[in-house]
Amino acid sequence: MRIGSFTRRGLITGALATPCILRPLAARAQEPVDIELVLAVDVSRSVDEQEQELQFKGYAAAFRDPRLIEGIAGGPLGQIAVTLFTWSDWHIQELLVPWTRIDGAASAEGLAQALDAAPRRTWLYTSISGAMDYAAGLFGQGYEGTRKVVDISGDGISNSGRPVADARADALAKGIVMNGLAVIDRSPQPWAAGMPPLDDYYRDEVIGGPGAFLMVAEGFEAFETAVKRKIIREIASAPPPGPLVERAYA
To answer: What is the top-level taxon of the source organism (predicted)?
Structure first.
C-alpha cells in the first residue's frame, strides 16, 4: 500500500515538475552595437581572378584605414558588428567572416587578416535577390545594432533567383537598409547588350531604406577607394546628408 502511495506521489510530483523541465531557456542577450553591417561580395563569373583579388584587398584595406577606426570610435557605443559573405547563384552564398565586433585597430586588423586568408572561389550566375535574402537572415545573431545595413557589391544585374524587387521589399519591411557598390566596366561587353546601365540599375532596383546610397567604382582599380569611402560613410553615427550616388575613380 505504501508502495502504491509512493508511486502515486511520485507521479503527481513528476507531473507538476514537467512544465519546469519543458520551459525554454531564457534567450541570450544581444550585445548592443552602433551598426550591424553585412558585406556581400559578388564572385560570379563576370568577376575574374584579378578583379576578385582587388575586391578582397579593398575590403581588407578599408579595415586598416585609420579613418574607419576613428569613425567607429566616434559612435555612441564605439563598436560595430561586421560579417562578410560572397555570393553568386541564388543558392550559393559562402560566409567567410562570421559576425565580428570591431571596437578598435586590433579587432579591425583581425578582420582584415581573415580577409587576406579567405578562399577565393568563382561561381556562375548573379543573384542579387539571393544575396539579399541570405543577408537578411544574418541579423540578430549575438548583436543588436541601432541600424541594420546590407552592403551589396557587384558588377552585373541579377539573372538568377526570384525578383530583386520582392527580396528588397522583404528586407526593407524588417528595417534593413540596402546600400550598393556597383563596379562599372566601361569596355564593351557582348553579353551586356540591351541591359540597363549598372549604376542606374543599382540605384533603381537594389538600394533602399532610410539614408540608402550607391557608391559607383569606375573600374575594379577604383574598388579600394570606393569601398573605403562607402564603409566610412555607413558607420558614421550621424551621417550627414550625402548624394544618393557617389563615384570613385582610380
So the answer is: Bacteria
What type of residue sits at position 234? E
Strand order across the 148-154 sheet: 93-102, 80-87, 36-42, 148-154, 176-184, 214-218, 245-248
Q: Which helix (H) or strand (E) holds 21?
A: helix 2-22
pTM here is 0.86
- H helices within 42-140, ranges in order? 49-62, 66-73, 105-117, 128-136
